[in-house]
Amino acid sequence: MKFQVTSTLQYSIKDLSTLILNISVLKSSSQTIFEENLHLEPFILAEELPSLDSTTRSVRIVSEGKKTLTIKYKALVEHEIKLIEKQQLSFPSVADLPSAVLPYLLPSRYCQSDKLLRLAQDKFGRIENAYDTVRAICIWIDKNVDYVSGSTDSETSAFDTVTQRQGVCRDFAHLGIALCRALTIPARYLSCYAYKLHPPDFHACFEAYMGGNWVVFDPTKLVPLNALVKIGTGKDAADVAVGTFYGNVNFKSMEVTNQVMDKDFRPLYFKDLENEGICL
Amino acid sequence: MKFQVTSTLQYSIKDLSTLILNISVLKSSSQTIFEENLHLEPFILAEELPSLDSTTRSVRIVSEGKKTLTIKYKALVEHEIKLIEKQQLSFPSVADLPSAVLPYLLPSRYCQSDKLLRLAQDKFGRIENAYDTVRAICIWIDKNVDYVSGSTDSETSAFDTVTQRQGVCRDFAHLGIALCRALTIPARYLSCYAYKLHPPDFHACFEAYMGGNWVVFDPTKLVPLNALVKIGTGKDAADVAVGTFYGNVNFKSMEVTNQVMDKDFRPLYFKDLENEGICL
Amino acid sequence: MKFQVTSTLQYSIKDLSTLILNISVLKSSSQTIFEENLHLEPFILAEELPSLDSTTRSVRIVSEGKKTLTIKYKALVEHEIKLIEKQQLSFPSVADLPSAVLPYLLPSRYCQSDKLLRLAQDKFGRIENAYDTVRAICIWIDKNVDYVSGSTDSETSAFDTVTQRQGVCRDFAHLGIALCRALTIPARYLSCYAYKLHPPDFHACFEAYMGGNWVVFDPTKLVPLNALVKIGTGKDAADVAVGTFYGNVNFKSMEVTNQVMDKDFRPLYFKDLENEGICL
Amino acid sequence: MKFQVTSTLQYSIKDLSTLILNISVLKSSSQTIFEENLHLEPFILAEELPSLDSTTRSVRIVSEGKKTLTIKYKALVEHEIKLIEKQQLSFPSVADLPSAVLPYLLPSRYCQSDKLLRLAQDKFGRIENAYDTVRAICIWIDKNVDYVSGSTDSETSAFDTVTQRQGVCRDFAHLGIALCRALTIPARYLSCYAYKLHPPDFHACFEAYMGGNWVVFDPTKLVPLNALVKIGTGKDAADVAVGTFYGNVNFKSMEVTNQVMDKDFRPLYFKDLENEGICL
How far apart are CA B55 and CA B239, in angstroms? Predict the structure, then answer.
């Protein structure tokens, strides 16, 4: 499946500032980039930061003086999705997990899984299949947490969301991740370009590790999972924030698009994936 | 119904210390004290603190020097309970609430109702009858929070319990109160002598205001509600703590008993009160 | 000293709603009201709620239907302040505290003194005089917490402010109260009309109990303490909020004034009160 | 300098369980292992987990059935320390930081630097030299936080410690790390064998990145920094916990030793390093 994704970000910057952006799409065995363009107005050099484990393609921009900086990104991407029957998505065993996967069992800034052990065990600890377990987590989040734009901020964590019961995609993902880890299911944050998200924005969901695969879950249920174009993954939003700023940087505006280039695209939403997990 | 209640508390005290104890049973129109005795070994004067609103009968003890202080309390009490059909237990209207009841709508140290608005509304906001609503809260607490001795401490609040899902009677009561207040149902903490509590201890539950009455609820479901002998009520455990200490006071031991003196006593547990509320 | 205070509040209200307002000035032995007027447009009855302990004069307003409600309050007040030399402001002893003062030692929703024991003891536990101790608390707050409008909200507590280091008068007062209580100095929240506050608004500071008196402290250092006109006191902001709303009430605008009517008024700021405490 | 380190851990295990241990010393260009032995009684295979970035040498043990497992580790290690004059320890610039260092600027589970920005800026934001800045942080922690064994648990974070003011080496390190990150100084957790720690235990301190080096700091001031033998580093204690357990594992006992093998060892404590930073 082919996608054209674009994003335009505008920041008002004073003084010397450094921006770390996660807007470039990931290169991987299942996601190929055909064309890609990053354009800055006024022109400044953007440096791609090497990633030891290929989970992000962060870009660093160093800006001097006072300016309005416009960043335009565009990419033509193809990805292959893999559908896996839920019978094959067995619970991972810590005894055999690859060492690169183990860190995704640990608590992180926004996913304090250590504080949610009982909640996770009580609500989801008796489901037989791993895929059904994480789907149950998503259904519970969607049912119990209201999607309210602007209701949370960059300090909001899964621990807060359990009680406050409102948030945006980022908060839904954090809670999903925390509950998975509390059940000894490795889980990681996924930042992506989503198709038909209203209002358009970068999207966040999460991946859980089962049957040897990272399976994608979207507790917001808002977008087709087979049209997600990966930007990066990390322990939580801190690792793959759209923008992390050091200095004096103020957000001005943002536009995000994701256009499906194939005519025969058939969207697969959360509801369509009852029996099969999807891997990007 | 007549009860004989006793409690024996032992503290190891160094230096000048002040103890505020809530172990004496309340005097009220529905609770009469026939005999009462407070005995301190070694002898020190105990001063009953006047209560402006008759919700507690706190006792202040000032101890000098190093000693082991034993406090023995005993009372023979009669109380009249009132059973009210749930049809009469209508939702209170803030427009008409007596001004003495209004404070029990506000958040307090251990009952941060302001942080639980959505949770309360989502789970319990659509039940028609006030009594059914608070029973639903109790059932939810009993189902979702495990009763685990020693799992919490004096800093644990309702906000913590929502996520940690374990606690003792005090935590169960705090969560019940916070959820009621979040739904605009006045609620207050009740400290009492309970019958057949294992292991024996002071007990805590809560009262919610509906149909003009303070109706008792016990989310632990552990004890008969018609055998509770009231010690006092307050906004939360801070107001009616068994012991509040200033100085150097260490707990050594405690014994609590509550003996029903009537032969024809028929216990009414949570499960027996589906259609009638009980007022002490 | 005579003052004319006014406030005009405007709310946009939908449906049946109840408002509890704390804008009327307190009547007490040291504060006399000469003229007072509360005017509602459109006209609705406002009911003064009796206060058992004379710490507030809350007003309840029940509004039906959709409307913009304007509330105008005006009062001509005289108060006598009392200046007490700091040598007389000794540490209170829990052993002798009046029972009506004891509750102000307990933790409350926004003043979790139980969590600040070590911080309070380490920073302020070795000062000999009670008045100097609370002044040191105020100086520390002023130095360590930035006054930033809009930086906090109705959920922010003293516990948060210790780490976040920003807030408004309400947060400054809560932190002052929590630190006092952690040192076994009773403290309570004071809502008032302040003179020359910029921008004009209701003001909050706190009172600490020492030498048998409630002495006023303003950790913001922004206003003269001898021109504060009392609205009410409570355990924290929850008890004397300017407005507590049940229903659908939205804030539209507010104007607050406090005019000194005496020509020979000499303002006493925090800095002028190094050796004398002020009681209202 | 040569060291012989040993540790003996004993766990009582029921059922199938997985243990991830961080007790083996790190191999690096500055730390050489001459002899090393890991012995399990009863015998089970221990698997060393590959580390992508060489910051840990975790070991995974999978135990079946009920048993008491004794783990004995012993190593003869030589490390070269590097002393760097503080003039060369300049503030890092985010614009130039190696991409592998950038993650150590982000908040993590126990080091919520995003919540401590103002506190860090107010207290330590005006010191000219980077090394002096982090020393000032350590001095502040040592002065304001009491070292109290057993006062905290595995859920305690830097955010809690700011207010609670007590903790163990782990908490001291977390707070140091969080404050550094809040000042845009990369910082990471260091787990190690320390010399002359009483009572003997694994030790934790932290490294801050300045002048292109990871410089070691010990806010507890308890041990000589030139006798620390590195076990591993990570974003916080979650990454290099001595033991992380999945299953039914209970701690029984622990013994830790670190013996200096060189006769001319001269200990360098915090107080001896006013002008020079130490790198392991």
Answer: 10
